[in-house]
Design a protein that fits this description.
Elements (H helix, E strand, L loop, with lengths): L1 E5 L11 E5 L9 E10 L2 H7 L11 E2 L5 E3 L5 E4 L2 E2 L13 E2 L11 E5 L3 E3 L6 H4 L2 H15 L7 E4 L5 H12 L3 E5 L3 H9 L4 E3 L9 E6 L6 H6 L1 E9 L13 H6 L3 E4 L5 H14 L5 E6 L3 H10 L5 E5 L1
Parallel strand pairs: 11-12, 11-14, 12-13, 14-15, 15-16, 17-18
Antiparallel strand pairs: 1-2, 1-4, 3-5, 3-9, 3-18, 5-6, 6-10, 7-8
Length: 320
């Protein structure tokens, strides 16, 4: 079957390790099911995998891709929850948690095999491309907002780095849930797009907000960390799920954190139940993932190059 896969690790030039071509069909396993992939979406996780983060050279070649929607062996339209392992995550209770492509072959292929527990019904209201955007970036944003930040309608949130997959999802979901959403971006066009998607206002990074917020959604890391901490109300919550600009900010702002009793919460992906809630939320409200572009699987390299360059707003989807 045709697939996009990591053939080698290159920490400096990750796309050098990306190959497109034929790979073996997925192997049948007891309790697992094979899904015919209709659409899959790119995440920065895929670029990090090509750099060797979370992906050991001993398991190469590895088909990339965490997210997918498709058709299962019984003809049902489904969405894949890509967290494998730990009790309640589709395999035995002693297996450590991982994401597809770390231990098991991913979704950038004509077919993928996952534990049957990891397959959820796709709402008929969502297209395959839309549904394929949800299990990683949009699920991460959903958990950050509603589980880990615990914000309620009417409260305010700052989303750093509008344009990225998680940040874009947080803007759309937050606005749909009745939050007052502020956003930042270095790019004027991306700030305007954030407002179109429901942000109350969008600012350049580091700009003073109209008022301090109840929560900050942080995926940028070092470049925006200080601004994120300074933007919170006393007792506010900073939720972080990534650090695309680096993990070591010039100042940790520890004094402000303890004096104002701020909360810093790490967040990774989400649960199967949260994904089911997200799918239902999108179906019921009309919220749809923001798709930057759609490409056939055999043009996956173009999608990777666009994501690596940062010239996107929303998700890049690969269709099979």
């Amino acid at each position: 079957m045709f697939a996009a896969y990591a053939a080698r690790i290159d920490r400096d030039q990750p796309l050098n390790g990306l190959e497109l071509g034929e790979r073996p069909e997925p192997e049948a396993r007891p309790g697992w099911t094979t899904v015919q992939v209709k659409a899959a979406s790119l995440n920065h996780h895929d670029l990090w995998s090509l750099r060797g983060v979370g992906l050991d050279e001993k398991v190469l070649p590895m088909i990339l891709g965490c997210d997918a929607a498709g058709i299962d062996a019984d003809g049902n339209e489904v969405v894949i929850h890509s967290v494998i392992g730990q009790s309640g995550h589709g395999v035995g209770p002693d297996e450590p948690r991982s994401i597809l492509t770390e231990r098991y072959q991913g979704t950038f292929a004509e077919r993928v095999t996952v534990p049957a527990w990891n397959v959820l019904p796709k709402p008929r209201e969502l297209s395959f491309a839309e549904a394929a955007c949800l299990p990683t970036a949009w699920l991460t944003a959903y958990r950050m907002l509603f589980t880990n930040a615990g914000v309620r309608p009417g409260q305010s949130v700052l989303v750093q780095g509008a344009g990225g997959g998680v940040a874009t999802a947080a803007i759309v979901l937050g606005a749909a849930a009745g939050l007052r959403v502020f956003a930042t971006s270095r790019d004027e066009a991306k700030r305007a797009r954030a407002v179109e998607l429901g942000a109350e206002a969008a600012f350049e990074p580091g700009a003073r907000l109209p008022h301090r917020v109840d929560a900050v959604i942080e995926t940028v890391g070092a470049a925006t960390w200080s601004h994120s901490v300074k933007s919170l109300k006393p007792g506010g919550t900073l939720v972080i799920s990534g650090a695309t600009s680096g993990p070591n900010p010039p100042s940790a702002e520890l004094t402000r954190i303890f004096f104002l009793e701020l909360k810093v919460v790490g967040s990774t992906m989400g649960t199967k139940d949260e994904l089911a809630d997200l799918l239902s939320f999108c179906a019921a409200t009309g919220v749809r993932p923001v798709i930057d572009s759609t490409l056939p699987l055999d043009r996956a390299r173009e999608g990777f190059e666009k994501m690596a360059g940062g010239d996107l707003f929303g998700k890049i989807v690969l269709t099979v």
